[in-house]
Amino acid sequence: MKVLLVEGVPGVGAPAESELRAAGHLVVGCEPADPSSPCRGLEAVGDCPLDGHDIDVAVVSRAGSDLVPSERGALCAARQRIPVVVVGDPRHTISFGPGTHAAGADLVSACERAAASGVAHVAAVRRDLLMAGVVTSDEVDGANPRISFEVQRQPRRLRLVVHAPADEPRLASITKSAAEALRRFDQHSSVIDVVTNPA
User: Fold this and answer.
1) Are 164 and 93 in the same domain?
2) What range does the domain containing 190 cover?
3) What angle, 0 to 180 degrees and rounded to 10, lies between the N-to-C axes of helices 14-22 and 107-116?
4) What is the pLDDT of residues 116-155, one digit of tens each?
5) For residue 62, which of 88, 93, 97, 139 is within the disulfide window of CB 3.0 to 4.6 Å?
């Protein structure tokens, strides 16, 4: 797994980096070489680690309650729909969007779960299809919904599974609309595999 480490204060992410490396994960940072530069990607010869589109998860090690400029890399990751795992005092945890996760006691497990999680993607698909009237809340809500969606994440790749009854006459149109909604939500994943799973 490739992890983008973002530090609220230089050095505050060292324990997280050590833990992730010990578990065999590759850790990269986005701090600029020039402290006066607002962003590594904006330096004259800089490059942004997000440009490779192979980051699985971002970890932001926070040192205070307010968002600081050095934490902007987590916002950049969130904009690319990369899950963000927040390390630090839970009283000071802030949201970096729908893909934000708290590290808890086990950072490595939290990162691995977040990297594969498509919960934010599913929420976006459901919202779009409900707003467009493609499905109704009666069909997608409840403990055993008639129609449901599942998204699994990999670097540059998403897998969308549409669960619906085998005799659902709108299955093809629901699947098409779900794939389009997923692409609108996440424009940075190169491939979307779409699977229907009739019950």
Assistant:
1) no
2) 119-198
3) 70
4) 999 999 999 999 999 999 999 999 998 899 999 999 998 7
5) 88
pLDDT mean across residues, the chain: 90
Gap between the Cα atoms of 104 and 65, Å rounded: 17
H helix intervals, 44-198: 72-79, 107-116, 119-132, 137-140, 171-185
How many Cα atoms sit within 13 Å of 48 on the Cβ side? 14
DSSP letter at 156 equals T
- Compute, in degrees rounded to 10, the torsion defined by CA atoms 102, 4, 47, 38: 40
Domain C-terminal end among 115, 140, 173? 115
CATH at 105: 3.40.50
pTM of the model: 0.87
Residue 106 has pLDDT above 90, yes or no: yes
Q: Are residues 64 and 153 in the same domain?
A: no
How far apart CA 169 and CA 51 sit, in angstroms, is 41
Query: Of 53, 81, 115, which one is at a domain's C-terminal end?
Result: 115
Q: What is the rounded distance in angstroms from the CA atom of residue 102 to the CA atom of residue 188? A: 24
Q: What is the pLDDT of residues 145-182, one digit of tens each?
A: 999 999 999 878 999 999 999 999 999 999 999 999 99
Q: Count how many Cα atoms sit within 13 Å of the Cα of residue 89 in the half-sphere of its side chain.
A: 7
